[in-house]
Each structure stands twice: as C-alpha cells, then as structure tokens.
Specification:
With 171 residues, the protein is an alpha+beta fold. 46% of the residues lie in helices and 17% in strands. It contains four helices and five strands, in the order E-H-E-H-H-E-E-E-H.
C-alpha cells in the first residue's frame, strides 16, 4: 500500500494512513512532532504528564477560578432588553421610518413561579441591572469551569487510588 502521509494539521498533529492490512497501529496513526515518533508505548507514556503533575495543574486552575469568583460583584436574575417602539399616534414619524422610533426603552424580565415578569426600567436601573446580570453570567461560567475541573480531578484521584491499591496488594 502507498504511504499517504500528510503534514501536520493546524493543531500540530500528523495523520498517517496506509499501514499493512486494514488495522492501524495507534502509535502510527497519531504522531506528535514536538515529541518525535515514539519507539514504543512506554516511551509515549513517559512523555505524558504524571497524575500528580496533572492534579497540581488542575488545582492551580481551580484556585485561579476561585480568585476570579471572589472578585465577582453583586448578581441579578433575568435579562435587560432595550427596544425602540412606535407610539399610538398614526401621523407620527415613528410609523413611517424605523430609524425614527421612540426610545430606547429598557425592560427587565425574569421568571417568577413559572411566569415571565417584565418591568420598564429607568436608565440608572437598566445600567445597574445589566452590570449585575453580566456578573451572574460570569459566575455561572466560572461555576461550569470549576465543575468540569472537579470531574477531571475526581477521575484522576480515583485512578491514583486504584493504582495505589493494586501496588499495595502486590506486596
């Protein structure tokens, strides 16, 4: 079979196809130019970060998120929308030209007991609520990242515990 080797893609990963038979060796399929082609599977594993190093990295990332979380200000539920409206006067220019509509008017809306509640805001309220809503969205984003890191850490800690149990059982 002809070797159809391609250069590295935009992530620096080289894909290689065309090995003998229909099966692909995992080490031939993905080679990382920065690591060089591994001689065997143990060489590849030696190049990877240890569980302890990865746990330290995750802990560092988690602490950075906690610092960002601590700096987050007040939070507020709902959304603020600014709208340009037409009035009730038939001869007003706002009915003829979209650019001449009245406003912008700021409305805040949220769900209360399953129902949408809306309220017209003055400019000071709108600016304050928008800032606090941005803070809430940042808080939710940080929370999602912290949860994702926690899931990774849990898997690593369980894997480490399992390997510790196996090595202590071998003695």
């Amino acid at each position: 079979m002809v070797d159809q080797r391609q250069g590295p893609d935009r992530f620096g990963v080289e894909f290689k196809c065309g090995t003998a038979g229909h099966g692909l060796d995992a080490l031939d399929f993905l080679t990382y130019p920065t690591l060089g082609k591994p001689k065997d599977k143990t060489t590849l594993m030696a190049k990877r970060k240890s569980i302890e190093e990865r746990l330290r990295d995750y802990e560092h990332q988690y602490r950075e998120l906690a610092v960002t979380l601590a700096a987050t200000g007040y939070v507020w539920n709902g959304t603020v929308v600014r709208q340009m409206l037409t009035c009730g006067k038939k001869r007003c220019a706002c009915h003829q030209d979209e650019r001449r509509r009245h406003g912008p008017y700021a409305y805040w809306s949220t769900k209360v007991k399953g129902r949408t509640v809306s309220r017209l805001l003055n400019p000071a309220e709108a600016n304050l609520y928008e800032e606090w809503i941005r803070n809430r969205r940042m808080l939710e984003k940080i929370q999602r990242r912290m949860l994702a890191l926690s899931k990774k850490v849990a898997l690593l800690m369980l894997r480490r515990q399992k390997s510790d149990e196996q090595t202590s059982g071998d003695r």
